[in-house]
Each structure stands twice: as structure tokens, then as C-alpha cells.
């Protein structure tokens, strides 16, 4: 039996993943257990969790794989500071020494109490490429990685064939599609490495404007080159842009300043006009990014002649760009469900299994329920320890599904905690907040009273896979591994359904769909079937079970705490329904 552990940590989104004989047994992000958003520290909690799933001790591991080359990464950082910020270089060296970044592999061996000879590393983009290709359903594929930056690469193209991966093209730092988008993320008042998806939401309220034309003059496309006059290769104060950038695009939006979608659509006044300008800028950078992504991917496909495409890296979370690859370019697309740095932990282990150790290619990853599961006894203990007293335990899960579907149909908002938690940033029906997709006020209630987040951000519709094409402008669902199964693509809502499911229809008429399949069988599928039978609508509003700024809940105690602090009406957790007050 071969047991391999993959790790990512040290930058952001630490994680651990365990393979046994090439099969993904467990994978979880550190933040889910530490409760620190984007936790970058050594993943003690995640390691203990994935090993406990299979009852394996660290000493029984055959090998551990780290997701990047620390020395190549330091070389890039040092070169950047050497020419631009020599005082900053000294600070970087001190940080690397203090945090043990020069001895990461030795630290892993020490923390796990295993021999250093069993610890290896691959390159950053190598781990991303492996996560996408070896999780995909393709035996041959064009593999693309696009992110901010790894060691030196910011985008790379690979040929995947059997168990081999060969890089044949790349972009190098500081020329980066990901950092370009991050520059505008910061300019638009959102946090880098966290708020990029908010830019996509804001873009729906704008129209591409002169910003896009100006932006195109600041970069060349083949290969991509960013002008150092406008874009900084060193992050300063959360910004990747320079004073010259501000001369062109105006003053930045204040960090996390509020924007109201009804005002963007109907309001007037100087403040509203400023917000509309930001929305137009968001639409412009979104359009330019889509074009850059499509250009890089299509160039790679032209070189390989293979239209099966597996993609990873943080930019792979750009669902609008993914949709264009499929709809406009006819590509067969697989997007790893955790395409960012957390997913690279699994990629490192897969690279170790297939490439480094010559193992057999694993089966496609067609679901992402790889985290923790909790027994009825553990849940009941959490209820009693938390001081909850108004709850019902159901003798059959079918009865709980029936009652929950009735509550949803009646307009209640439900916290949904069932089975193993999801791998990746999307809640796909294991740790979700659910409500009916109508009327539009349901969206506003969940945003304002439950999630406590920006009103302009849309919610996703979870839909029965076999009926998705009836509601959305898409082909009949074909495979469990298509991007929509992981909420990683955007489709248009059919005109006749926009008034039926307004709470999940974005202002531009689109939605980030989640296909819910009959197999593998999940409690969420059973609930959605019952809701559809009661209402005639095969769609539920699905958003992640967390409050603004917090990780998605992982344990029963996390779920009960979030339930207490939010405006949720009821919590369906395992065999239990938990209430705050008597429901009619």
C-alpha cells in the first residue's frame, strides 16, 4: 500500500491531502479547522485530520510532497527586490530565516517526525498542473495553469499524456494575468487573494468602457507584457499599481466601501455615479481578462492539437472566463474544484504518485466531498454543549428531507450541514445555506441578515442536473466533471425563468450554476428532489455556510455558532432539525 501526503503552506491557503494507492482519501484546507481565513501557517490541523480519516500515523507515510520549490521562489523574490527595493530585500531575508522558509522540507520532516529522505518537493505550477490533469477525466489533455505567480511562472501550458506532464510554454513574472486582475481588485476596494470574485460580481452592474481601451494600450498580448510604469512587481500597501496608474484611472475605491445594487441601477448623485464608474472599470478588466485567458489557452490548444483542457491556478476560479472557453471556443473543459494554492497540496501528492513514483493514473475526481464527517452522537454532544434545547431528531433521513423541503418552500432560510465537507472554496451541498430562489427579496435577506456581505454579490442556483437545460441556456448536462458541477462556470438564465428564480439571477441575466447529479448519491440531491416535487422548481439558492470574512463551517460546533449569530431560521444538521423559535 502506497500512502502519500501532499502539503501546501507558507504563502496563503494551507492544506493537506492524502492519497492511498493513488486514490484521494481526504483533503482539507487548514482554515476550515483553524478558523483563520486564508490561513498560511503549517497545516497541523489539516494533517491530523487527513491522517485520522484512514487511521494512518505519520511514520507510516511513504512520502510527503511539498507544492513548490522554496529556493527557486526565493531567487525570484530576491531578484525583484535587488533591483527595486534593496532595503526590502533585507526584510525578506529576515522573514525567511525567522519562518524557516529556507528549511521547509527539513521542517516538514521534523514536524511529522519522519526521515528527511521521505520529503520531496515539486514546482508550484507543476503541482497545479498535476491537480488539474490527474483529477480530470482525460487520458490526454492540454493542461493550463494561470495564477498570480509561482516560483517564476505566472501562466504555463503543459501536455498531459497518460502519466506524463511536460511544460512547453509559460509566462514569467512580473507579466501575469493573475496579478493584473489583482491590481484592479485592490483598486476597486477589495482584498487581494480574497476579493477577486467580488470584482466579477460588480462587473455585472457595469459595461466595458474606455478603461478597457486604455488598459489594452498598457500591455502587449503575445506574449503578455505589463508596463512597469503602471504595474508594480512588489506589493506595497496591498497595491500592485503605481501613481501613474492612478493618473490614468482616477482615485481608488475605499477598501470594502459599501455599494448598493438598487442604487447602481436606479440611483443618482455624485456618489452613485462614482460607484457606476467602478462597476464599469470592473466590467472592463473582466472582459480583458477573459480575452487574455482565452488567448493563452487557445494558443496552447493550437500547439497540442488536443481540445480536452484541464485548468488550475487561482485564475481558474474566474467562472466567466471558463464559460467563454466552452461556449465560444468549443473546448472540453475540466477545472479542478480547488484550483488555488490549497488544491496544489493535492496536486503535489498526485505529481508524486504519477510522475515521481511512476504510479498508475488515478480515477477522475468527479465529486469533492473529501473533508470531515460527523456522527449523530458528535452532533448531539455539540447541541447539548452549546446549550441548544429546541431540536428534533428524525428516525429517518427521508422524514428530515421532507420537513426541510416544506420549510424551504414556505420561505425559511436553512443552514444545511450533511456528510463530508467540500474540498475547495465552493459550498456544494454539504456545508450550505439554502433558501427558495424567489422572490428577489430572498437574495437581499440572505445577504443582509444572514451572510452580512455586500448586497451586489449574486448567489448560485443549485439545479437538478437533468433539468438544468430547461432553466438555463446550456446544453443538456453530460458529465459529472464539467465545470458547472463544481460551480465554476457562468450561464444565462432563460428569459422565461428570470421572473421565476430572480433571487439567483444576476443583474446581467446570468447565474453561476451548480449541477446536482443523482450519482454519487447525496443528501442534498434528495432534498432538492423533494423541493422540486413541492414547488415545480428544480432550483435552490445555495451559498456557503459562513458569515462574511469567516471560513466555511467544518464541525458541528462551527455550524451551531454560525446558526446562533446569523438570521438563519433553522439548521438541518445530520439527523437533527434545530430551531430558534416556534415555526408556523
Report what the structure shows.
It is a single chain. The protein is of the alpha/beta class and 584 residues long. It folds into three domains: 146 residues, ATPase, nucleotide binding domain (Nucleotidyltransferase, domain 5), CATH 3.30.420; 157 residues, ATPase, nucleotide binding domain (Nucleotidyltransferase, domain 5, 2-Layer Sandwich), CATH 3.30.420; 204 residues, Carbamoyltransferase, C-terminal domain (DHBP synthase, Alpha-Beta Complex), CATH 3.90.870. The strands form six sheets. Strands 15-24-23-16-17-22-18-21 form an eight-stranded mixed sheet, with helices on both faces. The chain has a five-stranded mixed sheet with strand order 3-2-1-4-5, sandwiched between helices. Strands 8-7-6-13-14 form a five-stranded mixed sheet. The model has no long low-confidence stretch (mean pLDDT 91).
Can you lay out the helices and strands and say which pair or pack?
Elements: E1 3-8, E2 15-20, E3 23-29, H1 30-34, H2 44-54, E4 63-66, H3 70-84, H4 86-98, H5 104-112, E5 119-121, H6 124-133, E6 140-146, E7 153-161, E8 164-172, H7 177-187, H8 196-203, H9 210-217, E9 219-221, E10 224-226, E11 231-236, E12 239-241, H10 243-249, H11 261-266, H12 270-304, E13 308-312, H13 319-327, E14 332-335, H14 341-356, H15 376-385, E15 391-393, H16 397-409, E16 414-417, E17 431-435, H17 440-451, E18 460-464, H18 468-471, E19 490-492, H19 495-498, E20 510-512, E21 514-516, H20 523-535, E22 539-544, H21 556-565, E23 570-573, E24 576-579
Parallel strand pairs: 1-4, 4-5, 6-13, 13-14, 16-23, 18-21
Antiparallel strand pairs: 1-2, 2-3, 6-7, 7-8, 9-10, 11-12, 15-24, 16-17, 17-22, 18-22, 19-20, 23-24
Helix pairs in contact: 3-4, 6-14, 7-12, 8-12, 9-12, 12-13, 16-20
